[in-house]
Amino acid sequence: MSTTYRVTHRTEYHYQDDVAPSYSQLHLLPRDTPGQRCRSSEIHVDPTPDDYRERTDFFGNRVAYVAVERPHRVLTVTAVSLVEVDDDDGELPLYGNQPWEVVRDHLRDDVGAEVIDAYQFALDSPLVTTSPVFAAYALPSFTPGRQIVDAVADLVHRIHGDFRYQPGATAVTTRLEDVFELREGVCQDFAHVGIACLRSLGLAARYVSGYLETDPPPGQPKLQGADTSHAWLSVFVPDAGWVGVDPTNDQPVNDRYVVTAWGRDYGDVPPLHGVIYTEGPTVSLEVAVDVTALPGSDSSLQQQQQQQQ
Q1: What are 227's strand-pairing partners?
Q2: Which residues partner with 80 through β-bridges?
Q3: Residue 174: which pLDDT band, with cuts at 50, 70 and 90?
Q4: Domains with residue ranges and CATH for the chain
Q5: For the chain, how many helices (H) and strands (E)?
């Protein structure tokens, strides 16, 4: 069984003066994974772009490139995708009963192609640097001989409890060390903290961006634009592959998550990244995301049942 989601991600920039030209790189097109299939996707840009291209980046993510040459004061980018996600209750895999030290040593010693590919995610990246501080924070969860998935779940639980979700407390330029000291931030910050902790212990962890279907308040219809883009992390476990966990919500990744892209950290996969030429500043930025289970899919039926109760 599976659920099909319609994902709409709309971003609108307002500028004080004319912008000409503007160039943007977009990680807004969901990728295919073993449990996910992107059935269709398209990006609409207003003004109509003078150049639009798609490519696959180093990590296998789908990337779009947009160039708008004519002067404009408003730029709107809307991505619409239909994504089918296989049922998954988020239960962690049986292969996760390996002691975490065995996983660490396997990553260091195995020369198989899968492990070599995973090892790049055990190294420092531009936004996530390992340190004894992160290792010390992680160690209470990673006691000697503890099973890897139990240890990771406990680390995620502690991050969820120790850090406060506070939009606006940080920016994409905020250093990870400052986030760790502040103990507050947003989903990308919590994912970075978890990745830093795991890498500091010699484990491989990658940053994942995408979407999470959210529930409306009991008895109320779902609000349009209420969802947001989301970020979490996944850890490499031999024989089990990549295991996703979400520090922001203190849970394993399940079939309500839609994967867009993954990389070493946020800097590899920002939803929109670009360059503009103007003397005026950006006046406002508006982002609206809708993740909707289509009628007839499992998630949609569950929501209807909840609203009728």
Answers
A1: 289
A2: 8, 42
A3: very high
A4: 2-86+270-296 (2.60.40.2250), 94-254 (3.10.620.30)
A5: 7, 15
Encoded tokens for 56: 């696959």
* Residue 169 structure tokens: 């407390």
Q: What is the DSSP letter of 122?
A: G
For residues 39 and 83, the answer to whether their CB atoms sit within 8 Å is yes
Residues 202/108, Cβ–Cβ less than 8 Å: yes
pTM: 0.91
HEC per residue, 237-280: ECCCEEEEEECCCCEECCCCEEEEEEECCHHHCCCEEEEECCCC
Alpha-helical regions (H) of the chain: 100-109, 113-119, 132-138, 148-162, 176-182, 187-200, 298-308
User: Can you read off the two tokens belonging to residue 95?
Assistant: 């292969």
- CA angle in degrees (0–180, nearest 5) for 221-223-228: 135
- Paired with 259 in beta bridges are 210
**195 vs 234: CA distance, rounded Å:** 8
Residue (of 10, 32, 12) closest to 227 by Cα position: 10
Q: Give me 103's structure tokens.
A: 């996983």
**Three-state DSSP class for residue 166:** coil
Q: Taking the mean position of all CA atoms in its chain, how far away is CA 307?
A: 29
**Torsion of the alpha carbons at 140, 168, 199 and 136, rounded to the nearest 10:** -30
Average pLDDT, the chain: 91
Q: Give tens-digit pLDDT for 122-167.
A: 999 999 999 999 999 999 999 999 999 999 999 999 999 999 999 9
| Weakest mean pLDDT among 54-63, 112-121, 223-232, 257-266 | 223-232
